[in-house]
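fyi for ur records
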Amino acid sequence: MSSQKCSFSISLIGLILLGLFFSPGKETNAQTKLRIGVFDSRAVAVAFYNSKFSTNQQIFASLGTRMKEAKEKDDKDAIAKIEREASLRQVMMHEQGFGRGSINNVTGAIKDKLAQLAKSENLSVIVSKWELVFSDADVVSIDVTEKIVDFFEPNEKIKSMMKEIMESEPLKDAFLIDD
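which gave:
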């Protein structure tokens, strides 16, 4: 019986060793790295606002029409509100196109395309590079700016602008730009 116990113990130890030898063990860094897609929000904003997908021309045209009507009626309250809205919209676009402003209004319009991009690039997250304030060694950042810009079907002029934008630093206090 003792030889059976010994034989069983040896077999059990052998199975454990085989399991350890053939098990995948601890994953390597390459397997555990979190892939994050990052983009330059300024380039995406400029591409969007210069595309057929933007409604800004209609919005500012509507503001112009409303302003004309308000002036014809000498409605000082309406004039002030329209001027404020136009000014705030311009400030927002300056911060988005030249600073580090949020472009949630832009990315919301392409949410489905961003999800497809994340899947095709094996990304866990896509975020503005200006919002990524820290990442450790287990994170790899993949620049997807040009792929996102392409969603807006930019012409060559806009593509050239994208390269210039991406090579420059964002302006501090871009909202203070005076047109």
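Residues 4-30 have pLDDT under 50 and may be disordered. thats all i got for now
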